[in-house]
Amino acid sequence: MLDSKPQLSVVVPAYNEAKRIEKTLNGLICPNRLFADKTCEVLIVMDGCTDNTPLIVKEIINHNQNATALVFPSRLGKGGAIMQALKYAKGDVIAFIDADGSVSPEELHKLVMLTDCYDLIIGSRYRVDSKIGCKRSFKRTLMSRTFNVFSKFLFWRLHDIKDTQCGVKVFSKRLFDIIQSDLLITDFAFDVNLIYSSLSFGFKVKEIGVTWMDKDGSKLSGSFLKQSFIMLFSLTRLRLYYSRFRKILKWRGFDVSTRLFYLWSRT
Questions:
Q1: Domains in the chain: boundaries
Q2: DSSP character for 128?
Q3: At what angle do helices 21-29 and 105-112 cross, to 10 degrees?
Q4: pLDDT band at 26; cut points 50, 70, 90
Q5: What is the distance between the alpha carbons of residues 66 and 31, in angstroms, rounded to a whole number?
Q6: Taking a C-beta distance cutoff of 8 angstroms, is the pair 112, 210 a contact?
Q7: For 8-216, CATH number?
Q8: Are 262 and 186 in contact (CB under 8 A)?
Q9: pTM > 0.85: yes or no
């Protein structure tokens, strides 16, 4: 890790990304040309990988002082992996970006440049200025659109947000320090938790169109119904948290059921 305090921390959650992680990391850390105006660290967090992702990552970052590999033996979920990485992040500005390369480092840089004006900047695939580099599968498009509609139905503050799930976001460390106790979702619905909590605390949120490329090997592609069910359950749980029925979450029966549910979701 860097000895000095970096200005920017980039978190890359990587679960079984052996086939795609090298290109993504090379764009971020070799030679880190995009963030020359900021000292930058890259945190690659790997949780429960069953392929060679940790070995490939360690080989890539072996001679890069600004990159750190964080390896956890069990599955944490996307949100859980990001939150673990944030315990190590030193930057005043924090970003996370998917390991699959669907959003380029150049697009991430566009969002980072707005951090002086906004507390949370969201990359979006569905704005007028967004660009989709290739045609998405019907299944993924249906899931994404349905999830957005359901999110807006449950959380009125999201009515102006067109895309909660694009895998690139940038926010201030100050924002995270204030809302972290409200971050309870550890799966793919983590993004909704982050955005809604930020809006609830009055932070300035901005959605920016990005260029996005659909990549083969999505972690959702082989378990469409299961992931849909998991994300809807997480949204319902988050809705309870932000309601007068929050105490339900602390009931022993509900808590045990939730733990068992998430154990099942990671199998």
A1: 8-216
A2: T
A3: 50
A4: confident
A5: 10
A6: no
A7: 3.90.550.10
A8: yes
A9: yes
